[in-house]
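Trying the structure run again after the queue cleared.
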Amino acid sequence: MKNEPNQKTTPDTNFLFGKKNYIIMIIGILFIAIGFILMAGGGSDDPKVFNEAMYNFRRIRLAPTLILIGFAIEIYAIFASPKK
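Done. Tokens:
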């Protein structure tokens, strides 16, 4: 079937995910970003001095847990079916 010269075709503007999926993805990205922010820092200016702050609860337990939760939220956002 050929398109007529005077017939206009409109591009299909459907998004792959629904609004709910994108909101959940943003929440997951925020969790991941907060986890990386909490993991940053703790270094020492003098390389001869060891800083025990590298191994505190925030950097060893909390930050990686937030990052993993963020990735789980992202996976859920991808697999959640959008309501139509």
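DSSP finds two helices and no strands in the chain. Worth checking whether this holds up in the mutant runs.
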